[in-house]
Design brief:
alpha/beta
Length: 341
């Protein structure tokens, strides 16, 4: 549900520290729900998308980000859907990087359009690329993504390297009975090209409601496969406790690999993330059942102070945990592509 209009007029402490003491410094901004793939863990084959009128304009996105930055947000990641489908995304990146308190602007993309846009993104000041890639096998890639395009992604990664991006992460979702054969090839590929690989547990955010706990290939199991075929992994010291990934270094020193285990090893106690959906709804968790309507506020002449109040109310209502595995857990009505990764 969305919060009632102007419910945030009630005086609130305008802080991004929630009732459990978690300080929120990272804002994930979805710029579109549209995508050129149909990954089974994210969206349905027959997905319907919101009208362009519902999307926040770039100016509205920048205003939200500016207000959030003055309240303590330091890093921004642009997501979707597929963010590179939003025209002239480099213009938004350029505006966001100019906000005084923003230290990093990153993007999560499937990479299909990256070859054509990497140069513009680099020039605009993009800090980091996160590229979703679940398989290097064409047949399995197509089975998961329900579209072709593996070669385009590889070309996009090559171009990103050519453009000088120093921080490129590869995100791979782990699904039991489907992706086991991809673990070692992806690891060797990333070791060869100096990409940081991260395996992410399958979460209950698929649009077709097919998720079950039996489908979760845990980070622990993925590590065991890597150690069996490549060598021992040594856990790294954690520089930023809020980061969801636990990183490891290969015994031969050739590269690192990370594990994001929201199902088997939840990291809710240190979560510092907020989200802004493409249609302008603040959310305090991927699994939240409540939206805080920034778009309505923006388009009804709301002030920055009111926007601060809305964001503070969103943070103040955050639960301690997403609740996966508990009897009380309820899947969000929105799928991943409608929320933003």
């Amino acid at each position: 549900m969305s919060c009632p209009d102007r419910a945030f007029d009630v005086p609130v402490k305008k802080s991004l520290v929630d009732q459990f003491g978690r300080s929120h410094k990272d804002l994930r901004i979805s710029v579109t729900d549209r995508c050129n793939l149909r990954c089974e863990y994210c969206m349905p084959l027959d997905a319907s998308f919101m009208s362009q009128q519902k999307l926040l304009t770039y100016d509205e996105v920048v205003r939200c980000a500016s207000v959030a930055s003055k309240m303590g947000v330091q890093t921004i990641r642009l997501t979707g859907g597929e963010p590179l489908m939003r025209p002239r995304l480099y213009q938004l990146v350029e505006q966001l990087t100019q906000l005084p308190k923003i230290e990093e602007v990153a993007i999560t993309t499937n990479g299909l359009l990256l070859a054509d846009q990497a140069a513009g993104l680099a020039k605009a000041g993009l800090s980091r690329l996160n590229v979703s890639l679940d398989s290097l096998d064409e047949a399995r890639f197509k089975k998961i993504a329900r579209r072709s395009g593996l070669q385009q992604i590889l070309e996009g990664l090559e171009e990103a390297n050519q453009q000088g991006f120093q921080s490129i992460r590869i995100n791979a979702v782990s699904i039991r009975g489907l992706t086991e054969k991809d673990i070692v090839p992806l690891a060797e590929f990333c070791r060869k090209h100096c990409f940081h690989l991260r395996f992410i547990e399958f979460m209950p955010l698929d649009a077709e409601d097919a998720w079950s706990c039996e489908d979760v290939l845990t980070g622990r199991e993925v590590r065991q496969i890597l150690e069996m075929h490549i060598g021992k992994l040594s856990q790294n010291n954690k520089d930023d406790l809020s980061q969801p990934a636990i990183d490891y270094t290969y015994s031969d020193g050739s590269g690192t690999v990370g594990f994001i285990d929201p199902v088997s090893q939840p990291f809710c106690d240190r979560c510092d993330r907020l989200r802004l959906t493409a249609d302008g709804q603040f959310r305090n968790c991927l699994f939240s059942s409540t939206d805080w309507d920034a778009r309505a506020l923006l388009r009804e002449g709301g002030t920055d102070e009111e926007l601060q109040g809305l964001l503070a109310a969103c943070v103040g209502a955050k639960h301690f945990s997403h609740g996966i595995g508990m009897e009380s857990f309820q899947r969000p009505r929105r799928a991943m592509y409608q929320i933003g990764g």
